[in-house]
Amino acid sequence: MGTLARFSTLYTIVDQGSIDPANSAAQAAGLDMDPDFENNYLRENSTMPMLTLPRPQAPTWLKKPLFFVIILAGLLLWLSLFVVEPTEMAGVRRFGEVTTHEPFGPGLHLKLPLIDQVDHLQVSLDILQVQNLTMYTVDNQWVKISVGMTYRIPPAAVFRLLYQVGRSGNFSVRENVEPIIADRAMRVFARRNTIKISEEREVIANEIRQSVSTRLAELFSLEVVDLQIAKIEYSPTFAASVEAAVKAKNDAVAAENTVNRIRFEAEQVRVRAQGEADAAAIQAEGQKRAAVTRAQGEADAVRLIGEAQATSLHARGEAVATHPRIVELVTADRWNGVLPLTVLGEHGALPFLNLNPSLPAVIAPIVDKAQ
């Protein structure tokens, strides 16, 4: 089977007349053929058809050098272009040396391909968040704060930050700015009492902002727009003491409210009693005035009655003086027909007996004569 497999390779791609078929077959079969066997094989198989195929040809576009030139030129042009985003500025280094005096602004720019290196730096307004900075106050209490700093990089500071701070072209805002924020914040909190931090929060933030802004301008020419203290976390010991103080204050306020309520109720009772006393006094004064008025009225009435009686008596006296028998007239006018039981005389009271019941009929003519 191995020999047959070797002879099966006789169908090879050759040019007619350029390669001997017998030798090609023997070489393809991997046999060391004897010259006599080779001659006999050639005589017997000279009419044997041989499979021939055309030799592979290279693509035509590979034979055109202009195509390679165009591709190479396009690749070099692509490598020569770089884009600066609207929020960035960039610098270009060539063999470690900065090639321009000013940074590149936003847009499309050119550089030498494979030689120049472009360094980008964000210059737009940005916020740096610094979390969980541990501060110690003047009364040895720790406080954890989170700070947010809003800043921007001026164009004049781009080259300084790219090539004069840290590794060339690799300025890290967090690595360079965060230690300064922590240091300046610790200096400010070290002068504060823990219990007054919440009350002076805005003042503390302004002091930290001014200190950080001054230092970053000196070192990196950064422009600090604002700085906020986003969170303040107190130690558990301080939080417990504040809670106890708040509870005590609330209890004191509740007790004071109770005292004020009792005072208010007592004041209400006093005012009510005073009102009742004033009402009683007013009522007594009214009664007094009413009594005085009533007494005056009664006195006036008695006086008027007395005057009227005196006038009446005077008139009666004058009537009696003028008509002596007027008394008998009045007596007869007022007599009810019943004789008196006694009669007053010079010797005392004498009983008066009516022996004649028809006496009134006798007396009647006397009265008529008097009239």
TrEMBL record:
PANTHER family found in the cross-reference section: MODULATOR OF FTSH PROTEASE HFLC (PTHR42911), PROHIBITIN FAMILY PROTEIN (PTHR42911:SF2)
GO cellular component, one term: membrane
Domain of life: Bacteria
Transmembrane segments: 66-84
Subcellular location: Membrane
UniProt xrefs under InterPro entries: Band_7 (IPR001107), Band_7/SPFH_dom_sf (IPR036013), Prohibitin (IPR000163)
Lineage: Bacteria, Pseudomonadati, Pseudomonadota, Gammaproteobacteria, Candidatus Competibacteraceae
Full protein name: Band 7 domain-containing protein
Membrane topology: Single-pass membrane protein
